[in-house]
TrEMBL record:
This is GDSL esterase/lipase. Belongs to the 'GDSL' lipolytic enzyme family. Keywords: Hydrolase, Lipid degradation, Lipid metabolism, Signal. It comes from the Eukaryota. One of its GO terms (molecular function) is hydrolase activity. SUPFAM superfamilies: SGNH hydrolase (SSF52266).
Length: 367
């Protein structure tokens, strides 16, 4: 579980400030999982990782499911809106075209996806990071055919790249005995395997023109409701949190090494573990009443795994940190986004930045 996409967007925006003489629009290409999926899995008909049923999307737009694994906006939506950045549409969005890509970029994120291809296999259909990069290569072919090779090279080298995966490689792979990785590796060897795979993928993205890229770290994934309910005490699962911290340390080192290896590029590591942990540990401090169970659950049956039409909703969604067993609510996403903006001093009086309007909260179905 990870809220850190907010930090990713913040940093990519910082990297965009001060660019001069740039006559093409700067867009983003996002590679991620369910925390940044904006509709790809809705178009994967065999995928079991879905946000295509009520009550997903209840507090956004027309209140119907839109592919986001929350009741409202993702952290990426909120930060991007405040920075005036275009929202990259899902790769599988039927309306996507060369013009849309040139003006908005593309979001390849897929619920259940991971750095490793075997991660999330029981979801049947999802895009791993390797697959997302393969789709990006297809996007490049499309744009080269549209605007020519030279202009396409410039477009892709000036774009911003976000790599936002990793939690599923633990939660929906290594920490689940049904996966062979859970008994093939130990903590150290699995981490080496995971980081080695990510290193190969980041180098490939560089070869494809990703010159300005941010990789995010994991949040306290042992504190999501799904992990808590698997313990006898209901507390955070410390093993998962320790793995997250080890992953963050390893990825931070990897990103530093890659930036030295590629002096023509700007690579950054985004880590907001402490901020997220504080929100979960001290919910009242931030105006929440519940940070250990989901707002949308199948009555008293836990874990509910997903939110479905038969689920019951909490009375006040703005008081819950988590929407379902895995994902944060719109209110939590907004708080994390604002905290990260403040933490990194991105907005000030001179810069301004119109706030992203919070959706009008619809009443719970039983109200």
């Amino acid at each position: 579980m990870d809220f850190n996409l907010a930090l990713v967007i913040v940093v990519t925006t910082i990297l965009g400030i001060g660019l001069e003489g740039c006559d093409s629009k700067i867009v983003q290409f996002i590679f991620g999982d369910s925390l940044s999926d904006v509709g790809n899995n809705m178009h994967l008909s065999r995928s079991l990782a879905q946000a295509s049923l009520p009550w997903y999307g209840i507090d956004m737009g027309n209140g119907l499911p839109n592919g986001r694994f929350t009741n409202g906006r993702t952290v990426a939506d909120i930060i991007g809106d405040k920075m005036g950045l275009p929202r990259p549409p899902a790769f599988l969005d039927p309306s996507i075209s060369e013009k849309v890509i040139l003006e908005n970029g593309v979001n390849y994120a897929s619920g259940g996806g991971g750095i490793l291809n075997e991660t999330g296999a029981y979801f049947i259909q999802k895009f791993s990071l390797d697959k997302q990069i393969e789709l990006f290569q297809g996007t490049q072919d499309l744009i080269r055919a549209k605007i020519g090779k030279r202009a396409a090279v410039k477009f892709f080298q000036e774009a911003r790249y976000v790599v936002a995966l990793g939690s599923n490689d633990f939660i929906n792979n290594y920490l689940m005995p049904v996966y062979t990785d859970s008994w093939t590796y130990n903590d150290e060897t699995f981490m080496d395997y995971l980081i080695g795979t990510l290193q190969r993928q980041l180098k490939l993205l560089h070869d494809l023109g990703a010159k300005q890229l941010v990789v995010f770290g994991l949040g306290p994934m042992g504190c999501i409701p799904l992990q808590r309910v698997l313990t006898t005490t209901g507390n955070c699962r410390e093993k998962a949190n320790k793995l997250a911290l080890t992953f963050n340390e390893a990825v931070s080192k990897l990103v530093d090494e890659l930036e030295k290896q590629f002096p023509d590029s700007i690579y950054r590591f985004g880590d907001a573990y402490d901020v997220v942990y504080d929100v979960i540990s001290n919910p009242n401090k931030y105006g929440f009443q519940n940070s250990n169970s989901p707002c949308c659950s199948f009555w008293n049956i836990r874990p509910a795994l997903t939110c479905v039409p038969a689920s019951s909703l909490c009375k006040d969604r703005s008081k819950y940190v988590f929407w379902d067993e895995y994902h944060p609510t719109d209110s939590a996403n907004e708080l994390i986004a604002n905290e990260l903006i403040k933490k990194f001093g991105l907005l000030n009086a001179d810069q301004g930045g119109a706030p992203s309007p919070a959706p009008a909260v619809a009443p719970s179905p039983e109200d």
